[in-house]
Amino acid sequence: MTAIRTDDLRKSYGDVAALAGLSLSIDSGELYGLLGPNGAGKTTAMEVLTGQIVADSGSATVLGVDPEIDPLGVRERVGILPEKESPPSFSTPREYFQFVGAVRGMADDAVDARTETWADRLSFTEKLDTLSTDLSRGQQQKTMIAGAFLHEPEVVFIDEPLANLDPIVQERVKRFLRRYREAGNTVVVSTHNVEVAAELCSRVGIVNAGELVAEVEPAELGADETLLDAFVENVDAGEEWERDE
Q1: What is the C-alpha separation between 185 and 179, in angstroms, rounded?
Q2: Beta 203-208 vs 31-35: how paired, if at all?
Q3: What is the rounded CA–CA span in Å between residue 132 and residue 103?
Q4: Which fold has domain 2-86+155-235?
Q5: Residue 91 gets which letter from DSSP?
Q6: Has residue 241 got a pLDDT over 50?
Q7: N or C end: fewer C-beta atoms under 10 angstroms in the chain?
Q8: For 94-135, what is each residue's pLDDT tens digit?
Q9: From what superkingdom does this record's organism come (predicted)?
Q10: How far is CA 61 from each of CA 48, 50, 70, 72, rounded to the nearest angstrom?
Q11: Hey, where are the domains in the chain?
């Protein structure tokens, strides 16, 4: 079943084309990576798909819903973790989760239980009642990750999920994302980190200049092939690329 589809999606800001005909299809149960250099259009694509901005032309659906026609309908069913987003400075993580739960229509006991689960999973139980303004950037990132998954959505969009996290927590997040996908949910990860995409994603769409230029399944690469090779070949084809042997 197709969870996400875009056809010839275009979005410009003045003379700059952020999306220049992006077409892709993501199935339910995929952990799909949008991999590209800075400015490739990854974040813009995610903003269109989550109904935060409207494309100039083309079409898109998420779980069968058009985000331009029904942006609230899409956002009710997905989780969103934008890059460099922080919880409200005047709230604690626990208060933020209570707010998320209220917006999502969750029962109080479910919010409480999932708050404890996520705090234990990401090792910030002792920070649940600390004002966000007093948290480290890593602790704020943990709060935002937990908030995106708190209502257990069918589809989650994450921009640079491992930013600011220590290596142990990074491994816990990666393990959770794999289990979440195995349960039949869909996760879209936007990143410019080739190693993260290669290790984490079941399929990777390489985006450059607002277009999908290649798709790669890391698990299917041969012994002498790497995602980095494919990335360089499709993004920086004008430069000679030699891999160290």
Answers
A1: 9
A2: parallel
A3: 19
A4: Rossmann fold (3.40.50)
A5: S
A6: no
A7: C
A8: 999 999 999 999 999 999 999 999 999 999 999 999 999 999
A9: Archaea
A10: 10, 10, 10, 13
A11: 2-86+155-235
Q: Is the pLDDT of residue 137 over 60?
A: yes
Chain length of the chain: 245
The chain-wide mean pLDDT, for the chain, equals: 92
* Alpha helices, H only, 25-183: 42-49, 71-77, 93-103, 108-121, 137-149, 167-182
Angle at 86 between CA 165 and CA 126, to 5 degrees: 60
Strands 78-81 and 155-159: parallel
Which pLDDT score, from 0 to 100, does residue 91 have?
95
pLDDT at position 172 is 92
Average pLDDT for 133-159: 94
DSSP, residue by residue, 9-67 = EEEEETTEEEEEEEEEEEETT-EEEEE--TTSSHHHHHHHHTTSS--SEEEEEETTB-T
Structure tokens at 31: 């952990």
- Side-chain half-sphere exposure of 27, counting CA atoms within 13 A: 8
